[in-house]
Every structure is written in C-alpha cells, then in structure tokens.
UniProtKB/TrEMBL annotation:
GO terms for cellular component: transferase complex. This is WD40 repeat-like protein. Keywords: Repeat, WD repeat. PANTHER family: WD REPEAT DOMAIN 5B, WD40 REPEAT PROTEIN.
C-alpha cells in the first residue's frame, strides 16, 4: 500500500478486518481497504508526526496520537474529525481503545499515561517517556512501558498510582501486550529480550 510520504510508525486493523489505518511522519492517518489496497481517506489535522492509531471496537471511530500533544478521534466512514483530546503537555507516543470502547489510554513523552473517558485522568509514575500502552481484555487494567525500563499496571476504574511496577529489562521498553486470557503480560525491549509477566 503506497501513499505515505514519510516514515510509517503505526498500523491497526478494524474489528471486521476489512480496513486498516496507518499513520506516521507525514502527519496523516490513512485508511485502506485490505483486499484491494484502495486508499479510502487521508485524515489531516495533526500538526506533527502521528505515533499511534487505534480503532473503536465497533469500527465506527478511530483515535490517533501525535507529537503535537493531542489525541484526535475521527469518523472512518467520512474521514472527518469528531473531537480533539488535549491534556498532554508533550508528544503522545501511543494509545489504545479499551475492549468495550469506554476508555482510551494514551502514553506520552513526559512519562505520563492518560485515561480518557470524561476528563482525561492522569496516571503518574513513569519517570521517562511512555512508549506503549495496552488494555487488558476485560478493559479493567492498563499496562504501560517506557524508557524508564519499567512495566506498570494501572486500574482503569480507579486510576491513581500503578498497582504493579515490574522491573527486569535493562533498556527501553518499546512494546507491551496482554495475553487474550488477561493472565500474562508480554513486554519487548531494546535490550533484545521479551519478558513474560504473571
């Protein structure tokens, strides 16, 4: 699929598998038809590199996060903007919708994680940039990882401080994911290891 004019940093499938969204250094989010490679829409509005993209569970909304400090929500059917979530004071490196669509979690370069439902609750703990966030399958918890070499687990309902801080990596944590059952977390790092956590 060709069309981006800069590095591509993120990609996500719609829940029905018909579309994918991609985004990157050209400050755009692009929507594609998987089977044909057709470009459906180019979403513009971010003022800088887009590092994260996530589909709402029913596929009727897309969220994106950018170095411009915003999270934007889009209508994938029209390509139009729906809302802009502001609250991060630096670039937003990652984001994800919860499995129920009730929340968006976003991680930023200042080490903060925000939980968006009504007010963008601020989850503090990372001491360096947060590089990835993910929801548990039930949507009850968020896991984050970052340059401070920690994996942190948060309550989506109560926010506040992290319930667990997992240490073991010796370099940046670039990605985190929950297992489908929700009883394990995987993290990958620039230290060239993948760790599995109970």
């Amino acid at each position: 699929l060709l069309g981006h004019t800069g590095l591509i940093y993120c990609i996500a499938y719609s829940s029905d598998g018909i579309h994918i969204a991609s985004a990157g250094a050209d400050d755009t989010v692009r929507l594609w038809v998987v089977n044909t490679g057709e470009l459906c829409h180019t979403l513009t509005g971010h003022l800088s590199t887009v590092y994260g993209v996530s589909y709402y569970p029913d596929g009727h909304r897309i969220a994106s996060s950018s170095e411009d400090g915003t999270v934007r929500v889009w209508d994938p059917r029209t390509g139009g903007p729906l809302s802009t979530l502001s609250g991060h004071i630096v670039g937003v490196s990652s984001l994800e919708y919860s499995s129920t669509g009730d929340y968006i979690a976003s991680g930023a370069w200042d080490g903060t994680v925000r939980l968006w439902k009504t007010g963008g609750d601020l989850l503090l703990g990372h001491t360096e940039p947060t590089l990835d966030v993910a929801f548990s399958p039930s949507g009850s918890h968020i896991v984050s990882g970052g340059k401070d070499r920690t994996v942190r687990v948060w309550s989506a309902e109560f926010g506040g401080e992290a319930e667990l801080v997992l240490r073991g990596h010796s370099d940046n944590i670039n990605g985190v994911a929950y297992s489908p059952s929700g009883d394990q977390i995987a993290s990958c790092s620039s230290d060239r290891t993948i760790r599995l956590w109970d």
